[in-house]
Specification:
six-stranded mixed β-sheet, 25% strand
Length: 235
């Protein structure tokens, strides 16, 4: 399996291209701010053909390049219905004071073909099967995408802004909820095998096992304790 990723734009959002191997079809995950050029570079480098864009949530730093990427390749975008409005109305999604200087340079809106994700769905795309888990907390429509173990590749969780190395996504933006975040961590992350690789991991990859042992949010969920304050960084 091939997973190619790069940080894009002012927020350094991680965009991923996932394929069974080089030279085959691929899925693009979270093409955010200024990601289009990087996507094209990775497509050329690995000789990939995109068949879909899938989105972990609707904040502008994750969806800003959806329209140009989908338009250039004639592919659909998949997003949870709770977050679909964010593609056309990023101000409402992040609040007027957050990141407004950048909105003037962005082309917002929906691509021609938008399809809605549902909890428990299995997306068969590019010869891969992604399991979809609705994981609200960062936004109402946040989801994760899971891939099972493949040959010598461990299971992978594309966590969006649910779980990072040592932290979790912020919950203070519109639609955020610490209660929902903790429930999503318990329901989506805790049952996973320790070997599951979590992407993104900010400066390093991480695993569920490592997070179970060191992440204060996941540890408190596992222990059934009360909430700790969510971080306030990024989107």
């Amino acid at each position: 399996m091939l997973i190619a990723g790069f940080p894009a734009g002012a927020w350094g959002t991680n965009c991923y291209l996932v394929a069974p191997a080089a030279g085959e079809e691929c899925v693009i995950i979270d093409p955010g701010h200024q990601a289009a050029e990087g996507v094209e570079e990775e497509l050329r480098k690995h000789r990939l053909k995109p068949v879909a864009v899938v989105l972990t949530h609707g904040h502008i730093d994750h969806v800003a390049s959806v329209v140009p990427v989908c338009g250039a390749h004639g592919v659909p975008a998949w997003i949870h219905p709770e977050d679909r409005y964010m593609m056309s109305d990023p101000e409402k999604a992040i609040g007027r004071s957050f990141g407004m200087p950048l909105l003037g340079e962005l082309t917002v809106g929906e691509p021609d073909d938008v399809r809605e994700l549902t909890d428990g769905a299995r997306l068969e795309l590019a010869g891969l099967e992604f399991s979809v888990a609705h994981a609200p907390g960062h936004t109402k429509g946040s989801v994760t995408f899971g891939l099972p173990q493949a040959a010598d590749i461990p299971p992978v969780l594309f966590s969006g802004d649910l779980l990072f190395a040592g932290s979790i996504g912020r919950t203070d933006l519109p639609g955020g909820s610490m209660e929902d975040m903790l429930d999503s961590l318990a329901r989506v992350c805790l049952p996973l095998d320790d070997s599951t690789v979590v992407l993104p991991g900010h400066n390093e990859h991480t695993t569920i096992g490592r997070e179970r042992a060191t992440n204060p949010y996941l540890r408190q969920v596992a222990a059934g304790q009360g909430a700790v304050q969510a971080p306030r960084r990024g989107m």
